[in-house]
From TrEMBL:
Keyword Methyltransferase listed: no
Residue ranges of every copy of the AMP-binding enzyme C-terminal domain listed in the record: 538-615
Keywords recorded for this protein, A-Z: Acetylation, ATP-binding, Ligase, Nucleotide-binding
Protein name listed in UniProt: acetate--CoA ligase
A Pfam family matched in the record: AMP-binding
Annotated organism of origin: Thermodesulfobium narugense DSM 14796
Domain AMP-dependent synthetase/ligase residue range list: 97-478
Gene3D superfamilies per record: 3.30.300.30, N-terminal domain of ligase-like
E.C. designation(s): 6.2.1.1
Membership in a protein family: Belongs to the ATP-dependent AMP-binding enzyme family.
One GO biological process term: acetyl-CoA biosynthetic process
Amino acid sequence: MSIEAKNETLNMIKESKIIFPNKDKVKNTNAGSIDAFNNLLKRSWDEPEKFWEDVANELSWFHPWSKTIEGEFPNFKFFTGGITNPAFNMLDRNIEKGYANKLALIWEGENYETKFYTYKMLLCEVNKFCNVLKGFGLKKGDRVSIYLPNLAETVIAVLACYRMGVLFNTVFSGFSANALRERLNHFEPQVFITADGIYRRGKVIALKEQADIAIEKVSSIKASIVVKRGGNPISMKSGRDYWWDDLMRKSEAEFQPELIEANEPGLVFYTSGTTGKPKGVVHSGNAFVINNYIYAKYHLDLHQDDVFWCMADIGWLTMHIWGIVGALSNGITTIFYEGAIDYPEQDRVYQILEKYRVNKWWTSPTATRMLMKFGEEKLKPYDLSSLDVVAFVGEPLNPEAWKWVYEKIGKGKIYLNNTYGQTETAGCPLAGAAWLTPMKPGSCGIQFLGAQLDIVDDFGNPVEPMTVGNLVFKKPIPMLIRDLWKDHERYLDTYFYKVPGTYFTYDAAVRDNDGHIWVLSRTDDVINVSGHRISTMEIESAVMEVEGVVESAVIGSPDEVKGMMPVVFVTVRDENNEEEIINKIKLKIVEKIGKIALPKDVFCVPTTPKTPSGKIMRRFLRELVIKGKIVSDTTSLENPDSIEIISKIISGI
Ligand code: PRX
């Protein structure tokens, strides 16, 4: 990146203004005062053992631990020898606290069906499902894969696995048979859970058909449990396929939680690396709960009567972090919504927020941009005054989207928390504490409780504030990745050898002069133009400033002279204005970054390829531009139709 261009980015960050949250809210937060929270933060960094000890003591244990923190990267442990159970801390503990009849889970189907579970009811269902799994011979250390959307049964199955110490994952229900089979063959589950069919935009998708093709060649699977949801005709294979309801009807509602040591594996979550096969990220179940309990408590400022809606899909770790573990370990009410957020109408999100008086909400930057595109009119009829805290994670949040949520949805009265995390970090070590730390539109907040991160150059030397570098962890947190399933060498190589002594995130970040950290992009997505490093995010941010642009994705395309050149994809509000907008985009990029970042092409497209959680899959745009076709696995693509449309636009057809 040229000095001029770098200065431009840093100026943008430097000029970003701190927004102080409403002081009147502070006294009712969990910390009670800003000083108290700052002291807690300081203590969490200065005396991590004491801090994590206090956190863990807020939860229940069957047997105390002997050492709070043991070892260093990559061989670290927390709460060594301590015995507890993740599901016990999410269910039984709340019942013991008197929440037996409090709503734990609200489920809303895309077709407006609803189900409500109190903590007692949820525990009862979870115990029954534990006995079902036990009936198939499953015990601690065995494995289950769940191929379901956001159903109540999905939550029950996940909690049952936690209770039994059975290793599990949820595989995104939009994955094809091939993608599913690849993951199952790697994980080797004994039991598999799916549904007959699932609702998506009013249609029933034959999920079991996909599942059957996948599991046919997965020899580890002894039983496939089928939730009745779509009501579509299916074939059941005798001796392998069982209806969920039949098994549950006969099952006992008592099951003792398994005794699980704090470092034993619990979840094995598949995430796609930028290259190669999907990797199975191994997390300790107990550490996942302990760490996300305290993070959710302060990220969202959780209180007893909160109603939280996490809009993510259970196929992604985000829903586990916030919607299951963060919510239930804090004893609040969590909402699971099954379907598309714009079905049957573009105001479905607002309907749900109003109907359940949601006060804590997680949404994605992309979903926000979608809501922006639908327009303010859709929002106007709804009373969303219950909203208090809105959180984000997963991708850069452009200031325009930040401001829209803050001003239009929240009427300037809410706390916005853009958090940063990865599947590997399990939760969000960069974030704000709701109502306690100042906000900055677009920043990822501060290094959070117990998290010790740094921004370093390629040799591991810390960089000064306002300098772009690699985001690394200097010290572990309990829920940080413990291994890659069946690939310990890849675990060590990928995360711990880039900058020895640290965990390497592969994210480029800047710490500003107020101590806020800005995650700019993956370091593996940097474009090198004439030897100058330019963050694609930086160009995207500039593009997003052009009025009428709804979303943008920038990729690098090889150039004979310059090595690389950016190519810009945008969706725009008014398609009749395309030519004018393209010119404005070019001018804006030159204005914001310099001629060096001038794109080779700007394509206006009706939509961009996305993951089901709404992230733009720039990889496919890159392949279409560079190779003229898609060469990598498209199974994680939510809207495969977009490929042909974009391909035609690129070729000018
Ligand atoms: O590049 C960072 C980006 O998303 C990546 C992690 O994605 P995933 O493993 O799917 O995890 C999602 C959350 C559990 C990171 O390496 N990312 C995440 N949050 C932000 C972000 N980029 C910018 N701003 C964020 N707030």
